[in-house]
Amino acid sequence: MKKELSHIPKECVAYNFTKTARHLASFYRKIINRSGLQGMQFQLLLAIRLYEPVSISVLAKKLEIDRTTLSRNLKRLEKNALVNFENAEDQRIHNVQLSESGNKILTSALPLWEEAQNLILDRFGTDNWHQLLDSMNKLERIIS
Amino acid sequence: MKKELSHIPKECVAYNFTKTARHLASFYRKIINRSGLQGMQFQLLLAIRLYEPVSISVLAKKLEIDRTTLSRNLKRLEKNALVNFENAEDQRIHNVQLSESGNKILTSALPLWEEAQNLILDRFGTDNWHQLLDSMNKLERIIS
DNA sequence: CCAAGAAAGGTGTATGTACACTGTTTATGA
DNA sequence: TCATAAACAGTGTACATACACCTTTCTTGG
């Protein structure tokens, strides 16, 4: 007889998070795309505005994403003239900052993020979200 | 004066889920890789075992992933001889099922999934996880 | 001072994701 | 019946992820 395995996808922490994350990213992306930005581009421009001028490695740590992934994503932003790189005194460090148009398009996208966020929170409840977020953060601490 | 924006990454539902999902996927992947399987390969083989023989579209709906993404991921499994395709009477449908070696390697990976899952649940608490999962499922229903 | 190592970043390669579009096969209703 | 629509799947293209490996630049301890 074959072992019953249907509990695995139902219970697997990674699978369920990945699935929900995909759907949520899609939800936000469809709205934020109206600004001309991809979802990831929005995240990056926002993070750059918060920390600029900032090196690639530092930004990767802030966003908790792989440095080489970030590096390539930033390269696309540079190609679209949304960010600029410049060297620091330390010649190893490539500092990134928003360009004029990067700043402009980010500003235009902020209300779209609000719209997506509010669509979710109005239906899910802000308190429920904060509780969920707390729980997720505990989970994160466990695996790092 | 510049508007304060640091609440956005802290609060954004999509960003926080994506980040946690990445970390969790990495956690499971490192363990499951010891079987020779990628994390996604494990998911797919498992789902195929649960539903085989199953068409690509049906499998995509079960897994809630994009059909074309699934199609290409399955192509890699086929290339590695872990699954087989065969046509149904309905010539449009390509049914997929596990090969001998696909079955074997999946069986060998199951204890590794248990290991990863238990590492998380032992530290996080099964009840906490079920509560979190409930909340996530509510969130999913809201956005679909 | 300077050799060894650490830090920053890039490249090669492979996998994963998803939208727009296409072709083929089956179902359906006027 | 047969034109039209729906269902199934593949391809083109672009973006996103991440590991292994490399070079360049700085730091540090003997």
Short account of what is shown:
Helices cover 71% and strands 8% of the residues of chain A. The first copy, chain A, is mostly helical and 144 residues long. The first copy, chain A, has one domain (14-143): Orthogonal Bundle (Arc Repressor Mutant, subunit A), CATH 1.10.10.
% residues in beta strands of chain A: 5-15%
The CATH topology label of chain A is Arc Repressor Mutant, subunit A
- Please write the CATH class name of chain A: Mainly Alpha
Q: Considering DSSP H and I runs of 4 or more, what fraction of the residues of chain A is helical?
A: over 70%
Instruction: Give the helix/strand class of chain A.
Output: mainly alpha
| Global outline of chain A | globular
Radius of gyration of chain A: 18 Å
Spell out the helices and strands of chain A N to C.
HHHEHHEEHH
CATH superfamily of chain A: Winged helix-like DNA-binding domain superfamily/Winged helix DNA-binding domain
> Strand order of the main beta sheet of chain A, please?
1-3-2
CATH architecture descriptor name of chain A: Orthogonal Bundle
Average pLDDT, all residues of chain A: 95
Number of helices of chain A: 7
Largest sheet of chain A, described in full?
3 strands, antiparallel
Number of domains of chain A: 1
Distance between the termini of chain A: 39 Å
